[in-house]
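fold description:
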Amino acid sequence: MPNNLIRRLIILGGLSIIGIIFVQSYWLLKTWDIKDKEFDQTVNIVLHNVAERMAKYNKTILPKSGLVQRKSSNYYAVNINSEIDAGLLEQYLSQEMIKQSLNIAFEYAVYHCATDELVYGNYCSPNNIDEKSIKKNKKLPKFKNLIYYFVVRFPERESFLLANRNMTLTLTILSILAIVFFLYSMWVIMEQKRLSELQKDFINNMTHEFKTPISSIKIASDFLANNDNVKEDIRLNRYIQIIREQNQRLNEQVEKVLNVARLEKDSIELKKEIFELNKTLEDIIKNESLKLKQGNISFKNSKEKININADKLHFVNVVANMIDNAIKYSNEKPIVELSVVDAGKDVLLGIKDHGIGIDKESQKKLFDKFYRVSTGNVHNVKGFGLGLFYVKNICKAHGWTLQLESEPGVGTEFIITIPKSLTA
């Protein structure tokens, strides 16, 4: 995965997290505010009803304004124009709380004019909670501007409001878990990216180091092959040929790894030039035919000369890779057919074999890096699984399309479509 893409994912992920936290915080505060207003309205209704019942019982008239006053978030004062019976007050408060479905504990106190003190009444809990575990506030504040009044305090207001927000809290917890999971995932991705870069650097450095001994072996084997004494000794000459062939094979594999490394870093540069397609393909076939002990490679060229503008080195590597694969996955006598067809707007280059073919499932992964088609228990096909990955990316870099047609037991054909707009 490119560094720029990871950087964008982190930025977008960070902005998403900030957005989620902002929205979640906003809705938490909004929900709290709504629940608080609902609580306040319900308490006002309860206390108004209690005040009206007390006034009716005492046959007095209630004040026209300032009847219920909220002194703090959980503390209310009720101003009435008559003396208050504490026992009756507690009864009315409990009844009205039940009517309004306000299932919350409360404590109350009544102002006594003679002593100028608030006389603590009682702590009332609808849930039969052990009162010893409750922190009672027996010294409730009084108010100078009121004469006949009682106060009510709700010590468990916060927990009551939270208890009615289970869904909101659940969503908040899920959001936090999602954020934590995202952050952990990003950390894992970055760690995997770091390890992947280390692995790639190691492979690339190791592959580059191979180039020096490969070159040295080639020079030494060429020198020995030209030695008259070696030429006269059939056995030594055969050994030298084996060294040269295996050295060439090793060099080709190293080049594949280096080319793939360049592709992954987007550092591969196409050095385009104009060359004749048919002539270039004939040269490739001559070189590849030397690898064949049996079978043949045929070529059906177009009648007209076709010049294309492409990187000749990579083009040769692409065609050679596909011919090499056709030979590897054929039977004892490989038959490979190359063709060039002028299809009007496009030039079609086909490489066809009559080998073992590729099943539908394998075709989906065929161009993936390091993927190799299974050949059962036979392991005579060598390679790293980089050839077709390289082919696909070179075609993509040139703006060509690559098609695959294959049937198990019948054979495989690759078709490269080169638009004439991209030719010379």
